[in-house]
């Protein structure tokens, strides 16, 4: 057993040596002018890539969403670089300045507070304008909260849609969810702690009892992935204190049965149920029997009662 541990320790030391040699080789290479989109860790600093470190160490300028936050990352790895803020509030003003620096022969690295740039941040327009001006744009891939959540969710990964943050108010949020409910793909959302319970409730109402994974503190010490169904998790979160931080919510695609249920079939079932039940009970019963979203049944039920009136 001790011999095995020594062998493992020797192998780990060789890995450290090889990684250091690889990083040294990358840093010694010249960094051509251009815009570099550098993915940074979403929590665990060990997730940064050697290539990302080499670009950040050599870049003439680093544009960061929050320079105070990014200084901690750079300081951890001993990187001293010129930092400039680039976020949604100053993007219109700063974008021409960054592009001018690149045209003058500088290398500019763009980083987000965490994860891959351009995912729910203002980097998209910077990339578009850089490309329009014929400037080089290079992506340095790495950590992504959306993909980390998807791959650990246990839900289908062959087709997925990243939908970002839902609208903060329930009405527009329900409208957006209704637009997405027929998409034949796993859905990925970002959500804040204060809105999580209400968003899960709206998802259950619109999307029905689909499987869901709620991911918190990904890659960090207290990482949690809570799996279940929307109709049960909404109740669990409703009875707890408001959680802090940001979450990734991964929702399963519609089932084949749900996709195959036509409006005509729902209306027929509603008419039969309404003959003996209240509107509320009819909606609940048809929703459960056909495995479709309550919102869809409710809306069709309203159309049926209007015609009767």
Annotation keywords:
309 residues; Cobalt-precorrin-4 Transmethylase, domain 1; 5-stranded parallel β-sheet; Methyltransferase, Cobalt-precorrin-4 Transmethylase, Domain 2; 3 domains; alpha/beta; elongated
Write a structural description.
- The protein has three domains: 19-143, Tetrapyrrole methylase, N-terminal domain (Cobalt-precorrin-4 Transmethylase, domain 1); 146-254, Methyltransferase, Cobalt-precorrin-4 Transmethylase, Domain 2, CATH 3.30.950; 259-308.
- It is of the alpha/beta class and 309 residues long.
- It is built from 13 helices and ten strands.
- The longest helix has 27 residues, at 2-28.
- Helix 1 (2-28) runs parallel beside helix 2.
- Helices cover 51% and strands 17% of the residues.
- The mean pLDDT is 91.
- Strands 3-2-4-1-5 form a five-stranded parallel β-sheet, with helices on both faces.
- Strand 2, helix 3 (67-76) and strand 3 (83-85) form a beta-alpha-beta unit.
């Amino acid at each position: 057993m001790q011999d095995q541990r020594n062998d493992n320790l020797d192998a780990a030391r060789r890995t450290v040596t090889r990684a250091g040699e690889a990083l040294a080789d990358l840093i010694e290479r010249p960094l051509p002018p251009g815009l570099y989109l550098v993915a940074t860790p979403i929590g665990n600093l060990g997730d940064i890539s050697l290539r990302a470190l080499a670009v950040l160490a050599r870049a003439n300028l680093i544009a960061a969403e929050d320079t105070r936050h990014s200084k901690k990352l750079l300081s951890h790895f001993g990187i001293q670089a010129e930092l400039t803020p680039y976020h949604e509030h100053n993007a219109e003003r700063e974008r021409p300045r960054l592009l001018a620096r690149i045209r003058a022969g500088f290398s500019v690295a763009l980083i987000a507070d965490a994860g891959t740039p351009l995912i729910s941040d203002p980097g998209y327009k910077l990339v578009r304008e850089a490309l329009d001006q014929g400037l080089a744009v290079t992506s340095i891939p790495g950590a992504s909260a959306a993909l980390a959540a998807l791959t650990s969710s246990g839900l289908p990964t062959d087709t997925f849609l990243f939908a970002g943050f839902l609208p903060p108010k329930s009405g527009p949020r329900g409208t957006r969810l209704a637009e997405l409910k027929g998409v034949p793909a796993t859905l990925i959302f970002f959500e804040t702690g204060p809105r999580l319970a209400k968003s899960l409730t709206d998802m259950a109402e619109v999307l029905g009892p689909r499987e869901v994974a709620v991911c918190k503190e990904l890659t960090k010490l207290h990482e949690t992935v809570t799996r279940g169904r929307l109709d049960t998790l909404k109740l669990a979160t409703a009875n707890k204190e408001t959680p802090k931080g940001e979450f990734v919510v991964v929702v399963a695609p519609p089932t084949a049965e749900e996709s195959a249920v036509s409006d005509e079939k729902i209306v027929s079932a509603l008419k039969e149920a309404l003959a003996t039940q209240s509107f509320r009970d009819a909606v609940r019963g048809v929703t459960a029997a056909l495995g479709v979203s309550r919102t869809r049944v409710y809306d069709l039920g309203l159309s049926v009662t209007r015609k009767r009136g």
